[in-house]
Amino acid sequence: MLKKYLKISILVFFSLAFLGGCATFQHLTTIQPDQHTGPKAADCSSCHVEQFREWSGSPHALAYQNAAFQEAYNEQGGEECLGCHAPLEIRQADAVGRLFNREEGVTCISCHLSDGRMHGPHKSSALFQPHPVQEEDDFYLGVEICAGCHGETYDEYRVLAAKKEVRSCLECHASTRQRTASQGTHFFSNLLVAFEDEVETRSHLISLDTMVAVPGSVLLAVRPLPAGAEARAVEVVIANNVPHNLPTGTFGEKNIQLVLCFLQGNNVVAENVLVVSDERVALMAGEVKKFTVFAAAPVDHADRLEIRLERHASRAGVRPAVIFATKTISLPLENRK
């Protein structure tokens, strides 16, 4: 009973403060008619601390600023590129680019602001809503949220999803978090948040790297071949169990590489690369490929062979390789001196 009265008292206090003009939150959901000003991600950070921190380190936050996009955009890009790299609202059938805060890339309002409300997948348990909210919006629970900007991958996904049940985009690319929808940064906000219920949410650090932690997504198996003509060879099996091709995506050169790294102790003595697939000939969803690779070191001092399956982009210095899987085997004694 005491908790109930405390909730009511706090709610009345904040309602009076808001109506009395102590604070206004209208700017959080307002875009000026000329579309030259609008909310910044930092405006959301004071109440959604964890989500802002995750987003800040994500590829979405860098979608406009990253050097690879800027180079392509300056060479041959048009305003249509900004519909995905600095979108105003992704819920629109044909998303358009923002005229403000473009450096924020795919920012908070791109995904959550529509018709003057902030939208989200969960029912709110907050005592006080500082801005209009549309709760339990199913748009965030399916794959369509990604479809507008990742159309080629979405088409690949639909082909497989029509045949069997598969994971959604967010299940692979956004890990789960148990938390309240908002987090406090000072006394009063902490007091408000204390009454919120924790729910299972998705991280806003949405990336390729997250897929690596999903069990069984991309399998790499290595086994030595029987002695004989191929005594110094191993069989490598790669299985693409994700619901789209590898690599996938509409723009840019990219490939999947099998990296053979010969080691002596902790030192790399040689490295060979085998291209498994690229944007022209992809490893299809559900496809399994087998390779025979020679495990004889190109130098005589290697005692181990590390085999890595990696995803590379055309501008490697801009976007680091994503390592899907790693296997290590001891080299045969006859390879050593």
Describe what this molecule looks like in 3D.
With 337 residues, the protein is an alpha+beta fold. 23% of the residues lie in helices and 23% in strands. The chain has ten helices and twelve strands. The chain has helices at 2-19, 41-45, 49-56, 67-76, 82-85, 108-112, 144-147, 151-161, 169-173, 187-193, and strands at 113-114, 117-119, 133-134, 176-179, 199-202, 218-224, 233-240, 254-264, 267-278, 288-294, 304-313, 322-330. It starts with a helix and ends in a 7-residue tail after the last strand.
Mean pLDDT: 85
Strand tally, please? 12
Structure class: alpha+beta
Give the N-to-C terminal Cα separation.
79 Å
Uncertain segments are 16-22, 333-337
